[in-house]
Structures are given as structure tokens and as C-alpha cells.
Write a structure and sequence with these properties.
Strand content of chain A: 25-35%
Number of helices of chain B: 12
CATH architecture of chain B: Orthogonal Bundle
CATH superfamily of the largest domain in chain A: P-loop containing nucleotide triphosphate hydrolases
Largest sheet of chain B: none
Radius of gyration of chain A: 25 Å
Shape of chain B: globular
Radius of gyration of chain B: 25 Å
Shape of chain A: elongated
Number of helices of chain A: 8
Number of domains of chain B: 1
Strand order of the largest sheet of chain A: 6-7-8-3-9-10
Oligomer: heterodimer
Largest interface: A-B, 31 and 24 residues
Strand content of chain B: under 5%
Number of strands of chain A: 20
Number of strands of chain B: 0
Order of helices and strands of chain A: EEEHEEEHHHEHEHEEHHEEEEEEEEEE
Structural class of chain A: alpha+beta
Distance between the termini of chain B: 37 Å
Distance between the termini of chain A: 56 Å
CATH architecture of the largest domain in chain A: 3-Layer(aba) Sandwich
Chain lengths: 368, 294
């Protein structure tokens, strides 16, 4: 039965490298994925996330490094011997076969008799809530239905691992959210290991147990969604995941506390824990804070940056105030929608208050 | 709706993508004029001759089908065309497959080789085969050097010569449609098949081959129908005892001067071609269902 708990496999990606001439598409990526885990590979295009997935699938062989599935080295095992399931970005149902035959295809490759493979394919279709659609042609289904059939086809032979290459990117928003839940449900029902590639951070954060953020072929950070959002390990992750204010500053003194000079807003004394990157006195730094942690205050107090209000956008649950600091940095504050700011007008100068416990400090990257 | 709001002659619709009725007719007119005056009208006249001259009769058709000599020519024509189609298919498929898998200079070279025949006339290529296959030609020299025969064998003026040369001439018409069909198969299909457990051979048989069948069908029908009416190659390389129907028609017109009978042969050939084309158009209906994206 498809609904029995198939145990997922653990995957170990060990110092994976993929070079194209002088370009390193993947530059020493190591990730250990536990059996039954849901891992998202998140990154902008060109970050190497797809190459990592293709190496796990066996469509692309790395220049260096190893891939172990359940401890067995299968870096160079052909794709058809890996027993992995995969859902692709584009619809890949075979157009000349019926929906049922598409789902039964992997069973046919494994030599199952027609009656049995059809029975199991029908069962898999029921798992993705498409019972009764078996006789149709793929072209007669909507995009969302086609991806659900692709999902059924990828799980019908109970693979140890399910790979997904941006499977929802072609779907519209509502359908995408529905499919996210569907995939989550299947994951917990089957206990299968899922590796999910996406460039949509919202998708990665909501679906995955852990998210690996990739950039330029390197893992920037890997961890649960909350860790990634609350304390991004690198400047890139801080800017890539969610909204973030960045304010240039200088580290003045480093000790039990850290003292920073924030332009004309004065010297602030912050707990040493805010520094994500180790900072030396005199070093240029970036002060980061999420817009929803910012509050408005009188100017002149500590941890307050005076800014001229540009736009005030009312968005129901939240109120977005966009201001410009004296050095030209744009600052955003997301306040509860109920906040009464009727006295505030564009053009006013107001203090953006950065609570010390919400501040993160990064070493300023090379000038962009 | 007022008359002013709707100009009588519109060449382009407001979105610029569709053209008006008048423009459509104007653009198609030269083509249809040529089709009517240079093809349909003479064909109609010829078919009229076949049943009306010298008096209304169907005797000419009875002769084509009833006389074993002529029936045999018709059957031989179908047989040779079928053989050429099959041979072309066997030769073309691997070439078309390779064309979808090579890049850069190699791709340009293979494509040039496939299209090369289009740059020379059928007559030139047929003459080249005559040179190759003659008694003292390259083919005979090679056969003797290899020790397969002691004396020159007759290669020219045989059915084999006709089949080989026709296959050569018609090969591009088989390669190009198959290439087109193969190129339209997204590479992700083959990846999906592999990951689902299909080895290369299995993936080819179960996915690539079925998806390329529309191309195979178009290529086959193109080659077969063209072969049915082939004249130059069979006339120059074939034996007069083993005629194909086009040669027979030409002979009836130019040597025997029996226009009504020649016209009846044309009528039969036209009927066969039409029936095959009709059967084909019915057969390709199903591949609308096979299109990758709805």
C-alpha cells in the first residue's frame, strides 16, 4: 500500500564541487540530510542549488566530492539505478500515455504485471486526490493536477527520497499554497526524505524542516526557518530572507558590550551578542533590523535614528512607514495596523527606534 | 454600429496580429491562381480525356487494372516506393537523432551534409549514381577488389539501383521531419524516464520513439508519395522491363501517343495518392492529444 510508512533515506553531500572551466558552480558544498527530513535548498539563480539537486538525481556528475544515500556512495550511479523520485519544474508527464499509465510507468520499468501496476497507480492517484482521473490524457488536466499526477508518479514505487526542482513555480498563488500543504501532508504520511529546490524564500520557510541557503556555489547557512529568520549567519542571508533594514555604522569599542557610531544618531552601546560577525574597533559595519521590530519614537533618544517620512502605506494587518535617514539610507518600520498615526504625514521627521535585542551587526561587505 | 466606425476594408485588425478578410484573400490569390490554372485545371482536363475520348468510356481504366502488365507496373511502383520509404526511415532516424544531440561545428557539418542534396539537382545526383554503378564504375571495382565477384556485375538498370538512388535523393525529406519531432521532446522527459527506472534503451522505446512517431509519419508519407511519382531516377537508372508508373505515363504520351490511356494512368495514380493522404490525415488526428502542453 502506498500509505504505509516508507522509511526515507539519509543523504550525505560531502564537499561537492562542480567546475565549468574556471567557474565553480558548486564550490565545496557539504550537507547532511537526516532520514525523513524535509530540506529546502534556497538561493537565487546561479547559486548552484539546481546543480546540487541534479547531482543527487544523477543527471549531473560532480567534479569532486561524494554523494552518499543511506551510507552508500552513489556519486556516479546512473539515475535509473538510484531509486529516487523527482518532480520537475516543467510538467513532465508523458503526453502519449494516459494519466494511469504515466503513474504506472515506474512500476512497468520494475517489471510489475499490468494488473498490479494499475492497481497501485490508481491507489497513488487517490493519495494525491485524483482518483478517477486515470483515463484522461495529461493535456486534459490543469497545471496543478498535472503536478499532482507527477507527484503520484514519483511516489508510487516508494522511493527513499523525493527530489523537487521548483515544482510549484509554474502554478498561480492559490494553487501553489494548496500544493505546499499537499506536499507537506504527503511528506508526513510517507516519512520520505524530501529535498526541495526553490528560489521562493516563503515556500522554503513554510515547508522545510531545515533550509540551506546557497550563494555562488557555497552554503551560506543551514538551519531551521526560525534560526534563519531571527539570526541570519551572513550578510547575504540577512538580506535574502525576509525584509531587513541595513544602516551603515562603525564599531567604536569592542568588549563586554559593543559600542557603535551610527552617523549623526550618536554612539550606541549594544550587548556584545548582537555582533554576528566578530568586529574590531574602527571597523565598518552594517546594523541590521527587521522592519517589524522597529518602533517610532521621539528623536534624540538612544537607539533612535531620525528620518524623514516618505510613504505611509496602510495594508490592513500592518502599517508600513518608509523613511529616509540623514545619510540617505531608506528605513522601513512595520507597525501594527491598529497603531494610530493620523498625526504623521509624509515630510515629517520622526525617530525610528531600534530595540537593542532586535539588532544584528555584520561586518560591512566590500563596497558594491 | 455606424458605417463610419467600421471601415469596409480592413487589412490589419486593431491589435495588429490578425489580418482582415480582404488582405487574406489578396495574399493567397497568386498561390491559388497558380494552383487552379497550373494544377487543378490541367488535371481535370486530363481526367476528362481519360473517360471521354474518343467516346465516353471506362475502358482505359479497365485496361490499367485488368491488364497484368500495367497492374504490375502499378504494384511495382507501390513496392519500390514502400521499400524506399523503409530504407530512408532506417537511414534517417539515427541521423536525425544525432542532429538533436550535437552542438557547434559538428552540428553545422551534419546539417550541411543533410541539406547538401537540396543544393544540387536530382538529375545531377542520378547521373552520379549512374557513374558509380556502371560496369567499370567505382562500385564494381570495389566489389572485385574485395573479392566478392570476379567479373563486373550488372548494377545499373536494375531495381536495386533505382531504390538506392531514390533513397539517397529523398533522404532529407525523411530526416527533417523526424529531426523536428525529436527536437520538440523536452530533455526533462528523458530525465524523468531515467529517474523512474528506465535505462537508455527502455527510455527510448517507451518515451522517445512514441513521441517521435508524428515526425516518422510525416517523413514517411512525404517520401512515399514523392516516390510514387518519381520519374527522372527510375527512367535513367532502371530497366525498361521494370518500369515505374511515371515512366509508363511518359512513354504512353511521348511514344505511343495514347493520351486517353496515359490520362487513365494519371487518374489511378492520383486516386492512390489521395487515398493514402486521406488515410494519413485521419491517422494524425490522434497526435493532437499527444501535444505536450494543453
Amino acid at each position: 500500500m502506498v500509505t504505509t510508512r516508507a522509511n526515507g533515506a539519509s543523504i550525505s553531500i560531502d564537499r561537492l564541487e562542480k567546475r565549468f572551466g574556471a567557474v565553480r558552480a558548486v564550490d565545496g558544498v557539504s550537507i547532511d540530510i537526516a532520514a525523513g527530513e524535509f530540506l529546502a535548498l534556497l538561493g537565487p539563480s546561479g547559486s548552484g542549488k539546481t546543480t546540487v539537486l541534479m547531482s543527487i538525481a544523477g543527471f549531473d556528475f560532480p567534479s569532486d566530492g561524494r554523494i552518499l544515500i543511506d551510507g552508500a556512495d552513489c556519486t556516479y550511479t546512473p539515475a535509473n539505478h538510484r531509486n529516487l523520485g523527482m518532480v520537475f519544474q516543467r510538467y513532465t508527464l508523458f503526453p502519449h500515455l494516459s494519466v494511469l499509465d504515466n503513474v504506472a510507468f515506474p512500476l512497468k520499468m520494475r517489471g510489475l504485471a499490468k494488473a498490479e501496476r494499475h492497481a497501485r497507480a490508481a491507489e497513488a492517484l487517490a493519495t494525491v486526490r485524483l482518483a478517477g482521473y486515470g483515463d484522461r490524457r495529461p493535456a486534459q488536466l490543469s497545471g496543478g493536477q498535472q503536478q499532482r499526477v507527477a507527484l503520484a508518479r514519483a511516489i508510487v514505487y516508494r522511493p527513499r527520497v523525493l527530489l523537487m526542482d521548483e515544482p510549484l513555480s509554474a502554478l498561480d498563488k492559490n494553487l501553489r499554497e494548496e500544493m505546499q500543504l499537499e506536499i507537506k501532508r504527503l511528506h508526513s504520511q510517507l516519512g520520505i526524505t524530501v529535498v526541495f529546490v526553490t528560489h521562493d524564500q516563503g515556500e522554503a520557510l513554510t515547508m522545510a524542516d531545515r533550509v540551506a541557503v546557497l550563494k555562488d556555489g557555497r552554503v551560506q547557512q543551514i538551519g531551521p526557518a526560525r534560526d534563519l529568520y531571527e539570526r541570519p549567519a551572513t550578510l547575504f542571508t540577512a538580506g535574502f530572507i525576509g525584509e531587513m533594514n541595513f544602516l551603515p555604522c562603525d564599531a567604536a569599542a569592542v568588549g563586554d558590550t559593543i559600542e557603535v557610531r551610527v552617523g549623526t544618531a550618536g554612539r550606541w552601546t549594544l550587548p556584545a551578542g548582537v555582533a554576528v560577525d566578530p568586529l574590531a574597533p574602527g571597523e565598518r559595519a552594517l546594523l541590521a533590523i527587521r522592519p517589524e521590530r522597529v518602533t517610532l519614537a521621539e528623536t534624540g533618544a538612544s537607539n533612535v535614528v531620525p528620518a524623514r517620512v516618505g510613504d505611509i502605506v496602510y495594508a490592513g494587518a500592518a502599517l508600513l512607514v518608509i523613511g529616509t535617514a540623514e545619510d540617505g539610507t531608506e528605513l522601513r518600520a512595520r507597525l501594527p495596523g491598529a497603531a494610530d498615526l493620523r498625526s504623521l504625514k509624509p515630510g515629517d521627521t520622526v525617530g525610528f527606534h531600534f530595540p537593542a535585542e532586535a539588532i544584528l551587526l555584520y561586518r560591512a561587505g566590500p563596497a558594491r | 454600429m455606424t458605417a463610419a466606425a467600421r471601415p469596409r476594408l480592413r487589412f490589419l485588425s486593431s491589435d495588429g496580429r490578425r489580418i482582415g478578410t480582404a488582405a487574406t484573400m489578396l495574399l493567397l490569390a497568386p498561390f491559388f491562381a497558380l494552383l487552379i490554372f497550373a494544377f487543378l485545371y490541367p488535371l481535370g482536363r486530363l481526367l476528362a480525356v481519360s473517360v471521354l475520348e474518343p467516346t465516353p468510356t471506362i475502358d482505359n481504366y479497365v485496361r490499367v487494372v485488368g491488364n497484368p502488365v500495367y497492374a504490375k507496373v502499378l504494384l511495382r511502383t507501390l513496392w519500390i516506393s514502400g521499400l524506399v520509404t523503409l530504407l530512408a526511415l532506417v537511414l534517417a532516424y539515427p541521423v536525425a537523432f544525432v542532429m538533436t544531440r550535437v552542438r557547434g561545428v559538428v552540428a553545422a557539418f551534419v546539417t550541411a551534409c543533410v541539406l547538401l542534396p537540396f543544393w544540387s539537382s536530382v538529375l545531377a545526383r542520378t547521373a552520379a549514381w549512374a557513374v558509380l554503378l556502371q560496369r567499370e564504375g567505382v562500385a564494381n571495382t570495389l566489389l572485385q577488389w574485395l573479392g566478392i565477384t570476379d567479373a563486373p556485375v550488372r548494377l545499373l538498370y536494375t531495381e536495386g539501383a533505382v531504390v538506392v538512388a531514390m533513397t539517397h535523393v529523398l533522404l532529407p525529406f525523411m530526416i527533417l521531419p523526424i529531426y523536428g519531432a525529436l527536437r520538440n521532446i523536452p530533455p526533462d522527459y528523458m530525465r524523468a524516464a531515467a529517474l523512474l527506472g528506465a535505462g537508455r534503451g527502455r527510455a527510448f522505446l517507451e518515451v522517445m520513439l512514441p513521441l517521435s512517431l508524428p515526425g516518422v509519419a510525416s517523413g514517411s508519407i512525404l517520401v512515399f508519395l514523392t516516390a510514387l511519382g518519381f520519374f527522372v531516377t527510375p527512367s535513367l537508372l532502371g530497366s525498361p522491363q521494370e518500369m515505374m508508373i511515371a515512366t509508363l505515363i511518359s512513354q504512353q504520351i511521348r511514344e505511343v501517343l495514347d493520351w486517353p490511356f496515359a490520362a487513365a494512368l494519371v487518374g489511378v495514380l492520383t486516386l492512390v495518392v489521395s487515398l493514402i493522404a486521406l488515410a494519413f490525415s485521419k491517422a494524425v488526428r490522434f497526435d493532437r492529444l499527444m501535444r505536450a502542453e494543453a
